Amino acid sequence: MIIQDRRWVLWINFDQLLDLPNVTVVNYQKIDETIFLKLALLNETIECPNCHQTLDRINQTEYNLVRDLSILGNPVYLEVPRRQFHCQKCQKYISERLSFMRLRQHHTIRYESMIYERVKNSSIEEISREEGLG
């Protein structure tokens, strides 16, 4: 994808830059200074954690907005598809787990780790202000 500024044009391969497993960037949008990346998941199946059947029947997909590490000094939000599969054997609905984020969180694990590391050398208030949190 191409990022254009008044002074330069830059080609960025967001898939390589993000380095997240089993995802690809399908859309890019920059609003003010914030980058939004819409992701698609590359795997088509998951394993049922109860009966270990391979599931390929998606019941629903919802997109969550998730904070990630900044790119070129710009805050980044990922539009992450959260898929729910239906297991015919168990008759249960299974939410897909993603290795780069915890369930019901609105930030990636690596973003959380970066915040923890920065707080060690600063104050919570300072980091919160710099990151635009709460």
From TrEMBL:
Protein name stated in the entry: Transposase
InterPro entries named among the record's database cross-references: Transposase_Znf
Species of the source: Microcystis aeruginosa NIES-298
Pfam families linked to this entry: Zn_ribbon_ISL3 (PF14690)
Residues of the Transposase IS204/IS1001/IS1096/IS1165 zinc-finger domain: 45-90
